[in-house]
Amino acid sequence: MLYSIHTLKSISNHLLPRIAEIHLSDAGLLSKLGYPFVLRYFENAIKDERAFGFYAQEEETKEIMGFSLASPEPSSLTSKLTKDKGWFIRNILKVIFTRPAAFFQMVISSVTIRGQMYESNTIECVYFTVDEKFRGRGLGRALQKALMDEGRKRGYKKIYASVETWNIASLKATQANGFKIIKTFQEGIYHRHRLESEL
Ligand SMILES: CC(C)(COP(=O)(O)OP(=O)(O)OC[C@H]1O[C@@H](n2cnc3c(N)ncnc32)[C@H](O)[C@@H]1OP(=O)(O)O)[C@@H](O)C(=O)NCCC(=O)NCCS
């Protein structure tokens, strides 16, 4: 499997729907809110000054295989979803009527995220996702490692991640990258491990 890794900020706009599509296989809240939220989130993330990430592209077919994203302040990426008030109200009303559980989880998660104190000099591995057909061959681990290398270059000292306790693939990749579990907690429907690694 030959691939190259590129910075997410260099991605062409027409490829962002592919990133959003890959992201939808993540079981987290953003996916539950639906495609419009996922696409908007990544449109904002690539423009965000402090967030950074990577995507992997297959050498031969140029297909995007997966991506990773980190930020020193993940809650600012989430709150950008509400910036265009008209867009947000239209889309969140659809969620309230079609998937009320996702809406309630959003409220719980936003409170939990606000309660997570971010020390200066630390980043969060916000997302890393690999298209199903390319999983199990080290790509997820490589994409997360790229975040760690870049974070270190930018002078950050520590990286955090939250992983659902059932998510063995993510836990294995994250622990292979040197993360250690520091606590386990409940966030609405999510039972998660909180992990950290020095950079
Ligand atoms: C998590 C994810 C990015 C891992 O990507 P990947 O390319 O498959 O990861 P890697 O191949 O680098 O490593 C995965 C490890 O988990 C193992 N693994 C994969 N699926 C597994 C499963 N169902 N049960 C047990 N182990 C599993 C692999 O064998 C590998 O372990 P190893 O290094 O000891 O061989 C991918 O599964 C994914 O996109 N999941 C959906 C999104 C998601 O959950 N993202 C993380 C949110 S915290």
Percent of sequence in beta strands:
25-35%
As a whole number of angstroms, the C-alpha radius of gyration is 16 Å
Proper CATH architecture = 3-Layer(aba) Sandwich
Q: Please, what is the CATH homologous superfamily?
A: Gcn5-related N-acetyltransferase (GNAT)
Q: Which small compounds were modeled alongside the protein?
A: coenzyme A
The amount of helix comes to 40-55%
Q: Give the overall pLDDT as a whole number.
A: 92
Explained architecture:
By secondary structure, this protein is α+β, with helices and mostly antiparallel strands. The protein has a seven-stranded mixed β-sheet with strand order 1-2-3-4-5-7-6, sandwiched between helices. The protein has a single domain, classed as Gcn5-related N-acetyltransferase (GNAT) (Aminopeptidase), CATH 3.40.630.30. It is 43% helix and 27% strand. The protein has eight helices and seven strands. The model has no long low-confidence stretch (mean pLDDT 92). The radius of gyration is 16 Å and the shape is globular. α1 crosses α3 and α5 packs across α6. Coenzyme A binds next to β4, α7 and α8.
